[in-house]
Amino acid sequence: MNKLVKITIDGKECIVEKGIYIVVAAKNNGIFIPTLCNLEGVKPKGSCRICTVKVNGRLMTACTTPVNDGMKIENNIPELHDLRKAIVEALFVEGNHYCPVCEKSGNCELQALAYRFNMMVPRFPYQFDIKEVDASHPKIIKDDNRCILCKRCVRTIKTDDGKSIFAVENRSNKTKINIDSELTDKLTDKLAKKAMDVCPVGSILYREKGYDVPIGKRKYDLKPIGSDIEN
Ligand code: SF4
Ligand code: FES
To answer: Are 151 and 44 in contact (CB under 8 A)?
Structure first.
């Protein structure tokens, strides 16, 4: 085990392993910091900024910042609540998220965070861009309307020799995620199911799996996001 250090999160003193990420240190101490692009056990990317906290007064992403002795971390404060809520609202207006008809409803982290932040009507105008739904793959349906470009699929769904099966295409507002055309056969049943699970929203759907558990009995229908961490 690494050296132990003392930090505070919202005034609570925590003794944690030096060098672990703030988001992990918080979780180990019963404090929820929202995440979207981050996935436990996978190298963090720090792209969505939903986990932003204040470290000694400076805004930092909790999923990419390792703890150090004496850090004073602010997490549950109105300023950050509003920033995180604005990020969720921006993601809703950039995509086309129709929760009542989405197969991921109740299991969707974006929807669960919207509930947590009491999002009603986004403060930004809806863009209603036309996006692609690709149903050509035998194992999955890929719906770009719901993709939040977190790249969790790119970072986790890999061939045995470590190649990413999902790939980022284009740049800026044309960026999208596709299956690498040369690796399409490598998306096995097991990896397709895993891809659906790692996707925080309903952008990757394993065929014939969507309605396995009825709405009302799904993960965040039963327990609000973060409630398994907070004590
Ligand atoms: S398909 Fe899902 S996991 Fe992949 S980048 Fe889009 S939202 Fe993230
Ligand atoms: S969860 Fe930390 S930046 Fe996305």
So the answer is: no
**pLDDT less than 70: residues of the chain:** none
Q: Strand pairing of 4-9 and 72-74? A: parallel
Structure tokens at 188: 């096995």
- Which of 61, 73, 149 to probe ligand 2 with, by most ligand atoms within 8 A of CB? 61
Q: Does any ligand 2 atom lie closer than 6 A to the CB of residue 60? A: no
Q: Report the DSSP beta bridge partners of residue 59.
A: 54
| CA 217/CA 177 separation, integer angstroms | 30
What are the residues whose beta carbons fall under 8 Å from the beta carbon of 99, sequence distance 6 or more?
105, 108, 111
Q: pTM of the full predicted structure?
A: 0.95
Instruction: Give pLDDT, residue 95.
Output: 95
Q: Is residue 9 in contact with ligand 1, taking CB distance under 6 Å?
A: no
Residue from 113, 150, 176 to probe ligand 1 pocket by mutation (most atoms less than 8 Å from CB): 150
Tens-place pLDDT, residues 157-182: 999 999 999 999 988 888 999 999 99
Which atom belonging to ligand 1 lies closest to the Cα atom of 166? 4
